[in-house]
Amino acid sequence: MVAAFASPDQRLRREQRVRKSADFRTVMDQGSRGGSRWVLAFVLRGVRDRGRLGVVASRRVGGAVTRARAKRRLRELYRRGSWRPAGDLVLVARRGIGDAPWASLEAGYRLALERAGAAGP
Asked: Which residues are paired to 56 by β-bridges?
């Protein structure tokens, strides 16, 4: 199986990522929340014009390799998405995300964003 992840020129730049622990806490505490089977989404609008992405995978998801794969898959969902919510977005991986079919992940991603009130192009 060949991985079809982003090439270096398509990766999220530093300014496109939520990087500080305080920023993660702010989005998760003050943002709206929506979830699905594979992902939990927190959206904080109005923080800035351009949206940023933060990805979290706790030890509940699995070992280091499984957590890394889960985070790669979430970043790829965001990157391939036809739209991105304005403001900051934090995606939290849930158990089983590493083995989930891609179509199911895409549907879960959209559902989580809809439930968080961030759906639409």
From this structure: 92
Position 11: which residue type? R
The tens digit of pLDDT for each residue in 6-31 reads 566 677 788 888 989 999 999 999 99
Mean pLDDT (the chain, rounded): 86
Write the DSSP assignment of the chain as a string of letters.
Answer: ----PPPGGGSPPGGGB--SHHHHHHHHHHSEEEE-SSEEEEEETTS-SS-EEEEE--GGG-SHHHHHHHHHHHHHHHHH-S---SSEEEEEE-TTGGGS-HHHHHHHHHHHHHHTT----
Pair of tokens at residue 58: 């706790």
Q: What is the pLDDT of residues 38-71, one digit of tens each?
A: 999 999 987 666 789 999 999 999 999 999 999 9
Q: What angle is formed at CA 59 by the lines to CA 88 and CA 33, rounded to 5 degrees?
A: 30
Rounded Cα gap, residues 27 and 37, in angstroms:
21
